[in-house]
Amino acid sequence: MDWREEVKRLEKALEELRSRYPAIIPSGELEKIRTEFLGKKGPIKALFDFVKKAPAEERRELGQFANKIKRAFEEWISEKRNLLQEAEEEIPDLSLPAFLPDLGRPHIITQTIEEIVSIFEELGFALATGPEIEQEFYNFSALNIDITHPSRDAFDTFYLDLPADKEKGRYLLRSHTSPMQVRIMEAYEPPFAVVVPGRVYRPDAVDSSHSFMFHQIEGFAVDRGIKFYHLKAVLWEFARRFFDRSVELRFRPHYFPFTEPSAEVDVSCMFCKGKGCSVCKGTGWIEVLGCGMIHPKVLANIPSGSEGLTGIAFGLGVERMCMLRYGIPDIRLFYTGDVRFLRQF
Ligand code: DAH
User: Fold this and answer.
1) What is the gyration radius of the CA atoms in the chain, in angstroms?
2) Predicted pLDDT at 76
3) Which atom, in ligand 1's list, is nearest to the CA of 181?
C-alpha cells in the first residue's frame, strides 16, 4: 500500500462527504458512512493495520497521519450526530394533547345584549342605537320629565362642559335609553317597533348593585290600535324565553313621566320558584323592568302628528338581567376585567 496515496484518498473522500452533506444526514445513512470508513473492514482500520507492520523509521510519521485522518472522520460524524439530535429535540410530540389557544369571546354583557335583542327581533322589533352624549331635550323634556319635576332627580346625570344648544339644551351623558324613543319618532314614520341597547350613566355611588355606568335596553312600538295587552304579551314571551318557560310575571302600578299608565314588572323568583329566598328578599318576586303606554306628550314628538296612534314602551337593565340569569352576586364583577370571572361565560 502506498500509504501517502491512501491518506490523500481518504482526505478527498472526507471532502466529498462534506460537500455532499452540507446539512443534516438521516441517522441510517450516517451510520452507513461510519461503518464504511471507520468500521472493522474499513480503510482506516486497514491503515492502522498497515502502521503496525510498517518499518520502525516510518511508523511514527505514518501513525500521525493515520490518527489525523481517523480523528477528522470521527469529528465530522459526531458533528452530524449532534445536528441530528438537536433536530430530533425540536420535533414536536404529535401524540401530546393539543394546546388550545384562548381565543377570547364577547363580554358577558355583550352576549346578554345580543341574546335579549335577538329575542325581540324574533318578536318583530328592529334594532337601533343612539348617542351616549345626549341633550337635555331628549333625555328629559321630550320625555315629559319637566325641569322642576322631582322625578328628574332619579335620572340626573353627568353634564358636559360644552356650550348648551339653544333649542335642545345642555349636553350630558344620557341617564337612560328612553331618549331614543324621541329620536326614532323624529326620524321615522310610524308604525315601528324598535329595541335600543346601550350604555347609560348615573351619579350613583358604586356598590354591589349600582354603578355610575350600566347598560339598558329600551323597547317601544307605535301603531294604530296598540294596547296594554300587546305590552304584556311581548314582555311575557320575552321573560319566558330569557329566563324559563315557567316564569310568572306581575305588573305593579308605578309612575314614570313618559308612560301612562305605567307599571313595574316583577318576575317570579327563579332561585326559589316563588317560595321566598334571600335574592327575592322573601317576597317570591324580583323587579326587572319598567314599562307602560307611551304618554301622549311623548307621542306628540311625532312630526306628522300622533292622531289615532298609541304606543307601548319598556326599559330594562342588562346587568340586572344577567345577574339574575347566572346568579352573579356583584355588579362590579362585570367591570373589573378579571378573566377568571369572564371566561366562565
Ligand atoms: N327609562 C327608565 C329608567 O331608566 C326605564 C323605563 C321605564 C323605560 C318605563 C321605559 C318605560 O320605556 O316605559 O329607569
Assistant:
1) 41
2) 95
3) 12
Atom index in ligand 1 nearest the CA of residue 218 equals 12
pTM of the predicted protein model: 0.72
Domain boundary among 42, 61, 90: 90
Count the Cβ atoms, other than its own, within 10 Å of residue 251: 18
Look at ligand 1, atom 2, and give the residue with the nearest C-alpha: 315
> Do 146 and 72 belong together in one domain?
no
Rounded to the nearest 5 degrees, what angle is found at the Cα of 78, between the Cα atoms of 74 and 84? 150
For residue 97, the model assigns a pLDDT of 87
Are residues 135 and 214 located together in one domain of the fold?
yes
CB atoms closer than 10 angstroms to residue 254: 15
User: How far apart are the C-alpha atoms of 65 and 3, rounded to whole Å?
Assistant: 9
Q: At what angle do helices 56-90 and 3-20 cross, to 10 degrees?
A: 10
| Assigned domain for 100 exists | no
Contacts of 219 (CB under 8 A, 6+ apart): 120, 125, 193, 194, 195, 196, 234, 313, 314, 315, 316
pLDDT (0 to 100) of residue 148:
79
Place of cell 322589533: 125
Claim to verify: residue 80 and residue 172 sit in the same structural domain: no
Other CB atoms within a 10 A radius of the CB of residue 257 amount to 19
Q: Is the CB of 215 under 6 A from ligand 1?
A: no
pLDDT score of 151: 65
Domain span holding position 42: 3-90
Q: From the first residue on, what is the mean pLDDT of each consecutive set of 10 residues in the chain (345 residues)?
A: 89 94 90 94 93 89 93 95 88 83 92 98 98 96 86 77 94 96 98 98 91 97 98 97 93 96 94 87 94 98 97 97 93 95 94
The verdict on 160 and 119 lying in the same domain is: yes
Answer yes or no: are the C-beta atoms of 259 and 251 closer than 8 Å.
no
Beta carbon of 310 within 6 Å of any ligand 1 atom: no
pLDDT value for 138 = 97
- The three-state secondary structure class of 163 is coil
Q: What confidence score (pLDDT) does residue 154 get?
A: 67
CATH number of the domain where residue 210 is located: 3.30.930.10
